[in-house]
């Protein structure tokens, strides 16, 4: 693993005016340049830390996990995290892991763009704008996933969130997110993603009407997929993942700072009188990170037929079964289509996995009408799906030449080996379900002629 130290001049990369360190899963070292030497030398927990700081370890795995999967970071902060009042239930947002609140629905499902509330009539920040769409499993058993939609129009002021249940993979679709974490700041814009891992405190600042998608996993962390015969390079390269550098504020909040915990699927709030972003220095391999989807090195078929969409996997959260993912994050980026004698759009499919698709921008090749940015679709386990009738007719007759596919478009998929249940909000309350979705396949007709091969 690479050891990287963040200093004002070395080993950092600057994007959108914020500095970052690069590398997926690296051992990073970072200290705020206002306090040089804040990291203890040669040990994690000295009797007295530099600058009178407190040492605090954040563990993302069991102590005894093998080294390749052992995740932890040491934070050196002005006050330890334990300084807060007791937690109390917080009735806010629309989060749930009650997968039995409504009868299951095996149909192909598609949602129109999820509505963003308007200000000043309905101010909503990232936490109050969280809505669970579907999921499976249970956070107490540390096995499962949830897919959430977030819509918001105002920033989190004097409050932060941390997820005790699992990791958030955040996909902004409209509006940029300035995310402050205990490790530093990240600016995440549409066509980028970020991962906030279990237990990490963060706040989201927005700059207008904002919308996006979240994949939450319980019991596993995201990692890069194995490359197998692809070799050493390809897909999402480790160096393109960016980690924030240390930044702190020593700020008292006399009116009270609200600490929000997502715990066993519910929200709880505790009060404290200081900002939690008081980490002056840190080191470790358990960090938040971001990635720009344009950095993905696309691999595709160059002779005939399709490679399966697993070749577009950016990140995976594995199960204990070899080759079976709890969840995959897959993208369908701009690329060349060159396959000969081939129906080039996605094939018709029934799958032992569940497939949720979202659209960040543009027009998805298999359904150019109806599937809109900010909306989504769910094709559940063994539910058939594929190109609509218009796409099939065009792709079956077009002259095959090398062509650009999906220029100006970025669609993605959250795929899971679990059978996902849709919430009442997803099926009813959101009022975004497209009840005419099935009609896009109705014009498909038989071309069978037993006398013509």
Describe it.
This protein is mainly beta and about 450 residues long. The protein is about 5% helix and about 40% strand. Strand 9 (about 130-140) and strand 10 (about 145-150) form a beta hairpin. The radius of gyration is 23 Å and the shape is globular. Mean pLDDT is about 95; it is low at about 1-10.
Overview features:
about 450 residues, mainly beta, seven-stranded antiparallel beta sheet, six-stranded antiparallel beta sheet, 30 strands, globular, disordered N terminus
Task: Present the secondary structure layout.
Blueprint: E1 3-6, E2 13-15, E3 18-22, E4 27-31, E5 54-59, E6 72-77, E7 88-89, E8 109-111, E9 130-138, E10 143-152, E11 159-163, E12 166-174, E13 177-181, E14 184-188, E15 192-196, E16 202-205, E17 210-218, E18 242-244, E19 252-263, E20 266-274, E21 279-284, E22 289-292, E23 313-318, E24 325-332, E25 335-337, E26 354-361, E27 376-379, H1 389-397, E28 403-405, E29 410-416, E30 421-422, H2 424-429
Parallel strand pairs: 1-4, 11-19
Antiparallel strand pairs: 2-3, 3-18, 4-21, 5-6, 6-21, 7-20, 8-27, 9-10, 9-30, 10-17, 12-15, 12-17, 13-14, 13-16, 15-22, 19-20, 23-24, 24-29, 25-28, 26-27, 26-29
């Amino acid at each position: 693993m690479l050891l990287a130290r963040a200093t004002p001049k070395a080993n950092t990369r600057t994007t959108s005016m914020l500095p970052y360190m690069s590398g997926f899963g690296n051992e990073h070292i970072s200290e705020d340049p206002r306090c040089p030497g804040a990291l203890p030398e040669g040990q994690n927990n000295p009797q007295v830390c530099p600058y009178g700081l407190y040492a605090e370890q954040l563990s993302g795995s069991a102590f005894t996990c093998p080294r390749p999967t052992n995740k932890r970071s040491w934070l050196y902060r002005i006050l330890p995290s334990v300084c807060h009042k007791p937690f109390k239930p917080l009735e806010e947002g629309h989060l749930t892991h009650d997968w039995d609140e409504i009868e299951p629905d095996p149909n192909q499902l598609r949602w129109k763009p999820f509505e963003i509330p308007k200000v000043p009539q309905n101010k909503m920040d990232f936490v109050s704008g969280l809505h669970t769409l579907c999921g499976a499993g249970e956070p107490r058993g540390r096995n499962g996933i949830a897919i959430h939609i977030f819509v918001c129009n105002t920033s989190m002021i004097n409050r932060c969130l941390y997820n005790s249940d699992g990791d958030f993979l955040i996909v902004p679709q409209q509006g940029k997110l300035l995310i402050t974490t205990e490790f530093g700041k990240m600016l995440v814009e549409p066509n980028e993603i970020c991962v906030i891992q279990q237990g990490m405190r963060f706040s989201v600042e927005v700059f207008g009407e904002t919308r996006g998608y979240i994949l939450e996993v319980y019991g596993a962390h995201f990692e890069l997929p194995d490359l197998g015969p692809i070799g050493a390079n390809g897909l999402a390269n480790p160096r393109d993942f960016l980690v924030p550098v240390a930044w702190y504020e020593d700020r008292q909040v006399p009116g009270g700072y609200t600490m929000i915990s997502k715990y066993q699927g519910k929200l709880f709030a505790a009060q404290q009188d200081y900002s939690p972003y008081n980490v002056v220095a840190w080191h470790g391999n358990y960090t938040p990170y971001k990635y720009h989807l344009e950095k993905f090195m696309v691999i595709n078929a160059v002779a005939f037929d399709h490679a399966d969409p697993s070749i577009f996997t950016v990140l995976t959260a594995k199960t204990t079964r070899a080759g079976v993912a709890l969840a995959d994050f897959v993208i369908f980026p701009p690329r060349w289509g060159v396959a000969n004698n081939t129906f080039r759009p996605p094939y018709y499919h029934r799958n032992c996995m569940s497939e949720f698709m979202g659209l960040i921008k543009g027009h998805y090749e298999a359904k150019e009408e109806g599937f809109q940015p900010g909306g989504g679709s769910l094709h559940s386990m063994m539910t058939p799906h594929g190109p609509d009738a218009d796409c099939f007719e065009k792709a079956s007759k077009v002259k095959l030449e090398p062509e650009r596919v999906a220029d100006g478009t970025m669609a993605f998929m959250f795929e899971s080996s679990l059978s996902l249940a849709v919430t009442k909000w997803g099926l009813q309350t959101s009022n975004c379900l497209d009840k005419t979705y099935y009609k896009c396949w109705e014009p498909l007709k038989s071309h069978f002629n037993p006398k013509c091969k």
